[in-house]
Structure to design on (158 residues):
């Protein structure tokens, strides 16, 4: 089974990496798709986000990183992907992700399914937004993101 794990990954967190690694152990191929969201102000540009992910996932033969600008369901069908992976941290995530899952199923010509993966309890509070906020106040993000990401965040907030 080929699955996609979409997100902005700005920046990629330990929570994202946990979901990717767990998915890599369950599925034949995991496509980590860095999406463009015109409503977001990014800390890292597309190339930087892809580079950080590739640095972290280079030794996973069944994981590839790509970017896409458009509707996720179009990417899914164009690339013959079986399912979409979404991480769930709390009930509030479930409510918003459920809407996206139902919309994707409605618009899908291939009846694509969304699979929810529950965050590990120690990462249930973690988000890219929280990481950026902590970093903006010169806080320690070393336990929230991989080392290569921490270094790049520090450079951005110098």
């Amino acid at each position: 089974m080929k699955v996609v794990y979409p997100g902005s990954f700005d920046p990629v967190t330990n929570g994202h990496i946990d979901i990717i690694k767990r998915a890599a152990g369950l599925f034949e191929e995991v496509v980590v798709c860095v999406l463009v969201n015109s409503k977001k102000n990014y800390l890292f540009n597309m190339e930087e986000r892809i580079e950080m992910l590739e640095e972290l996932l280079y030794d996973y033969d069944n994981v590839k990183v790509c970017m896409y600008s458009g509707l996720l369901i179009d990417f899914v069908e164009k690339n013959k992907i079986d399912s979409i992976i979404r991480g769930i941290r709390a009930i509030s995530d479930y409510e918003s992700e459920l809407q996206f899952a139902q919309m994707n199923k409605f618009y899908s010509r291939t009846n694509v399914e969304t699979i929810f993966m529950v965050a590990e309890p120690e990462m249930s509070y973690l988000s890219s937004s929280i990481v950026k906020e902590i970093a903006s106040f010169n806080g320690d993000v070393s336990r929230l993101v991989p080392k290569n990401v921490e270094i790049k965040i520090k450079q951005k907030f110098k």
The CA atoms of residues 14 and 146 lie 6 Å apart. Strands lie at 2-7, 29-35, 63-68, 83-88, 113-118.
